[in-house]
Each structure stands twice: as C-alpha cells, then as structure tokens.
Design a protein that fits this description.
Glycosyltransferase 2-like domain-containing protein, alpha/beta, Spore Coat Polysaccharide Biosynthesis Protein SpsA, Chain A, 272 residues, single chain, 8-stranded mixed sheet
Length: 272
C-alpha cells in the first residue's frame, strides 16, 4: 500500500520499539527501509542485534545521507510513501479501511498536500517551542479532519505542511524533495521542505485521532533543545539495556492520549 523509510542514529533500542509498534499497529506497510548510522561499535552492536531480529526489514548503513536517501526513495514503487524517525512510535492502531479511504480522498484531491497522522482536532500545544497555538477553522471534522494550512501561522502545527515524518505524501512529491534539495540529515531536509512550501496544495487531511507520536526522551543531533535531557534515557543507557536483553515496554505507550505530536513519556523496560 505504501513504502516507508526510517532514519536512525545510535538508537537501536528506540528503533526496536518503533518497529514493534509498526508490526502491532500499522502492519499493512509494504516495504520498510531503515537508513542507519552510529558513532562507534558500542552502538553498532545494538544495530547488529536489531538487524538479526527484524529480518523482514531492509537495513542500509549510511554513507552519504542525501545519496543514500535518494537511492531508497527512488526505489519506491507505491503511489504514496512516508518516513519515520527512530523516536517515533505508532501508539494507536491504524484501521486499514479508514486509512485506505483517506488515500482515496488524496487520489481525487490534488489540492490536499498530505495526510497528517499526528494531530487531533483539540491539539494546541507545541512541545519543542513549549507554547500554545490556535486551532484552524476546520473545513471538515468528520469522518476526517480537513483544514487549510495556508491560513495558519507558519510554525503552528496546523500551519506546518512539511514535516519529514508522520505524514503520508505522494511519492513523486517526496522524491522531488529528496532529489532536488541540499541536506545532510532529516532535520535539514525538513528545513528545505519548510522553505519551499507548495501553496498550490493549501489543504491538509488528517485522521480523527493521532496514530503516530514522537517521544523525544533524548537527543542525537547537535543543537539546542531544552527537552530530551533525562540521563535515565540517554542513548548510551538505552543501548546498554538493549544489549543486556531489555526492550521498552508498550503498556504505558499504546493508547496514550498525547496532548502534542511530541511528548516525553517515561520508559518502562521488560526482559525480552
């Protein structure tokens, strides 16, 4: 139905959680590609364990991010595609019939830019900026959310049409982004997408409830972020737990009613 890519760095433990959540809650994804990198062999051992576990996933060791990204995206054969980052989780089950109907709407609605899988109609909190924002005047709220991102403030979640992850895009559109922009990792790709917003596609479609959220309990990229600084969940601590046979439990994550697309949740661990 749709192809996807996952970007990962030093987070085998969290990627394990994401891949399990896809299997449990988004099982009809077609081809899953993981583009991964790590800083040293301590993290490399985590990926070695992960690759042996998820034999039905295609893993690509990163060499040059943009070139690797282009190769993967240009291999996609499905009409629609999407991307994940490794601290995403599919926390609510995606109904195949509801999802298929949403894609059918995209088929006949060229003015709709993408299908957003991370918002709910009452979400007003921005976790990265630690602020609140206004809701749009919805064109529709049932059976799907439909709104104009063009009428919202650019950094408002509802006015942000260009997230690299958790959105379902037309594959040709995402291939254009990946092939034509200059970027070095997913964050700079998103920056380029944000700088080249397509006003000819002013609408956004969403499911009634969010299906994917980001749990930013740690950081791997260079940059300031006042969140994700809990040392209990550092990439080093999580990788050590993973190599010692522990995985992140889903009991307090599946069905969680998040108040923002990005929200920290305490990790609980179980022996695999």
């Amino acid at each position: 139905m749709i192809d996807c890519i996952i970007w990962s760095k030093n987070r085998a433990c969290q990627l394990d959680l994401l891949l399990r959540s896809i299997k449990d809650n988004f099982s009809f994804l077609d081809n899953i590609h993981v583009l991964y990198t790590f800083d040293n062999m301590f993290f490399g051992e985590g990926y070695k364990k992960l690759i042996a576990k998820f034999f039905n996933v295609t893993f690509h060791k990163e060499t040059i991010f943009k070139q690797d990204n282009m190769v993967i995206f240009n291999s996609f054969k499905t009409k629609y595609c999407m991307a994940f980052v490794d601290d995403n989780v599919v926390h609510n089950k995606i109904d195949i019939y509801e999802f298929t109907r949403a894609l059918r709407i995209l088929d006949f609605s060229p003015e709709i830019h993408a299908l957003n899988l991370r918002l709910r109609k009452d979400m007003t909190y921005n976790h990265p900026q630690d602020c609140y924002y206004s809701l749009p005047n919805f064109i529709k709220t049932e059976p799907y959310l439909l709104w104009s991102w063009l009428l919202m403030e650019p950094m408002n979640e509802w006015g942000y049409p260009c997230a690299t992850d958790s959105y379902v895009y037309r594959t040709k559109r995402y291939q254009e982004y990946c092939n034509n922009f200059e970027y070095t990792f997913s964050g700079t790709l998103e920056g380029q997408m944000s700088s080249h917003r397509i006003i000819e596609e002013p609408l956004m479609l969403g499911l009634p409830e969010p299906k994917i959220m980001c749990i930013p309990n740690n950081m791997v990229q260079v940059g300031h972020n006042k969140h994700g600084m809990n040392r209990l969940y550092s990439v080093e601590v999580l990788n050590k737990k993973y190599l010692n046979g522990f995985i992140i439990d889903t009991k307090n994550i599946y069905g969680f009613k998040n108040n923002a697309p990005h929200q920290e949740i305490p990790f609980q661990f179980i022996k695999e």
